[in-house]
Amino acid sequence: MQKVINVLAVLSFVSTTGIIGGGTYLYLNKDKYIENVKEQVAKAAAEAIARSLPKIVDSSIPSMPKETGGVIPSVTGGAIK
Fold it and tell me: What's the rounded Cα separation, in Å, for the pair 64 and 55?
């Protein structure tokens, strides 16, 4: 029974040490991870804008007419009074 308790104690120590070590590592490197995520978000946003911008521009510019209307009549008899 003592061997089982010793094994559980060692496993508990190893797992606690791993959790503390991993947490410390993440805490010390958090700035690097935050900057990496910021860069990825900025890149994704820029790509999304670049993909949607041509559609927005194309939809806002009217198309050229295929036919034109009649000629506007000119005023005859000189200047308008």
Answer: 17
